[in-house]
Amino acid sequence: PIVLGIETSCDETGIGLVRGHTLLANTIASSMEEHARFGGVVPEVASRAHLEAMAPTVESALAKAGLRFSDIDAVAVTAGPGLAGALLVGVAAAKAYSLGLGVPLYGVNHLAAHVAVDQLEHGPLPKPSIALLVSGGHSSLLLVPDVAQDVISLGSTVDDAAGEAFDKVARVLGLPFPGGPHIDRSATSGSGTAIAFPRGKYDDGTFDFSFSGLKTAVARWVEARTAAGETIPVADVAASFQEAVVDVLTRKALQACRRYDVKDLLIGGGVAANSRLRALAQERCDAAGVRLRVPRPGLCTDNGAMVAALGSELIAAGIQPSTLDIPADSSLPITTVNV
Ligand code: ATP
Ligand code: MG
Ligand code: FE
Known about the structure:
Layout: E1 2-7, E2 12-19, E3 22-30, H1 32-36, H2 43-65, E4 74-80, H3 84-101, E5 105-109, H4 110-116, H5 118-122, E6 129-134, E7 139-146, E8 150-156, H6 162-172, H7 180-187, H8 212-227, H9 234-259, E9 264-268, H10 275-288, E10 291-293, H11 297-300, H12 305-316
Bound molecules: adenosine-5'-triphosphate (ATP), magnesium ion and fe (iii) ion.
Adenosine-5'-triphosphate binds at residues 9-10, 82, 110, 135-138, 163, 166-167, 178-181, 184, 269-271, 273-274, 301-302.
């Protein structure tokens, strides 16, 4: 079946079309330029932009795939978590398409969709897999027996999300928002061992993370040098900060693989686009005999294909469609795959 996926949890209006595990179209309209000057996403601006972008983005996805509305067999939409007003636009549109086309509706979890999307690139996800989900609002280690029906949380951040730490440190370094890609780029000309930044919860025996101490340490380091009139070695700070984040993420992910005797690790979410995270994860997986799966960067950050991919998975698993009265749930827990 051909599934239309609709993603509006943050600033991207993402529309995806998939058939089974085959990606047919992945079209994105972003309102990021409108938010950049505020240094963060402004919810009201995002909602309005989704409203304006929805119909044209659906139409351009159909055109790209060479499909018509009548070819769509089901509609999947992000029902949460995310910005309430932004989610509402997507959920309302999805209900309208579902009703208008006479096809089933699937309300799905945005975070589970970040995990499911990898199947479009690397095929069926081994059951079980360990998933490291690292994005702008979340950082979690998950045991995934079956992404369509069972996601277990092993641990998560106790303060900032990994992406949030990237964005805040970028701001301290005077890099544009969202800062993750800028730190990634800047770090390539710096040294990850130049400055010894703290690694929170490194050896605490849990699968939780903490990034706020690291973020504060970087800010203090930069402030002290600035006050002394020194030039900030931006590339070295970026690389050393990035190394601290990816060291902890990969270390705990492999500890989880060992603890649960799972041989497949998936990394998903916007921070999974990070080049150093990908490289270090590969190195440590190779050493541990674990197979690593990371989708290409364009599928890591928010998009509609990931939502369609999870919808497709729910259909294959024979899960009942959602009713037309499903709410948008801004704090939908990761363990609730669909609503
Ligand atoms: P969530 O999925 O938790 O609701 P979100 O949807 O806003 O949050 P994503 O789009 O999945 O988040 O990810 C965006 C985050 O990923 C931002 O914090 C951004 O800085 C970060 N990011 C994107 N590319 C990179 C990169 N190359 N290196 C590090 N971080 C990155
Ligand atoms: Mg985003
Ligand atoms: Fe996301």
